[in-house]
User: What shape does this take?
Amino acid sequence: MDTNTQKRIDEIDRPLTRIDIELFMQGTAHLLDEKGLFMAELDGNVIYLNLSGRNISDADLSNIDLGKANLSRANLSGANLSGANLSGTDMSGADMSRADMSGANLRYANLSRIDLTKTKLSNTDLLNANLRETNMSNVDLSNVDLSGSDLTNANLSGANLNKAKLGMSEDYEKNPTILREANLSKADLSEAWLFKADLSLADLSNANLNNANLSRATLNRANLSNAQLRLAILRDADLSEADLNGANLHNADLNGANLTDVDLYGDAISLVV
Assistant: This one.
């Protein structure tokens, strides 16, 4: 490798490109920052990049392998990460505005407390991802796998979660999807898989849950007012103290459900158990 490709990342005063990153990955020890600000070599020959706080805006990183990289606080606005391997990456605090992560592998990634409202996420694999307090309002999450992910206090209002998987992963007994206190008002969860998901205290008002599978889900004190639950499967679900005022439960399966302190026959409409 010539000396031009061996320069440290600190010397680059422009947004990083795919070529930069690939050259750095090939450079191994030659490109290690003495402060650990660029890359670290772990587990033998496996290199995990540290691009924390770096400017990677508008870069074409489609299908790149950045597994377990540190991208926290990085500027990834407008970056193309479609089909990329981002499993185990730390992206907390990153700027993801206008980024395209459709079809990307984000298993076990840390995406907590970031704004994804202008990010493309369709067909993304977010299994067991950390999405605590993340803003995904009005985002297209159709066919996205969110099984086992932590969405505590996440904002999913108006999001399209049609046919999304939110309730079962390979190790769901240990890692149920957590949507506790999440904002899902007006979200499209039709045909969503929410098996054993924790939706306690979640706001599901006016949400579309038609044909959703909520078997064994925890909906304790959830707000389901005016929600559409036609043909929904709520078998063995915990609906204790849930608000079902105005909800449409036509042909919903409530066998074995815990309905303690729930008024099903007051304002709930079209109930057929």
About this structure: Confidence is low (pLDDT under 50) at residues 1-7, 28-44.
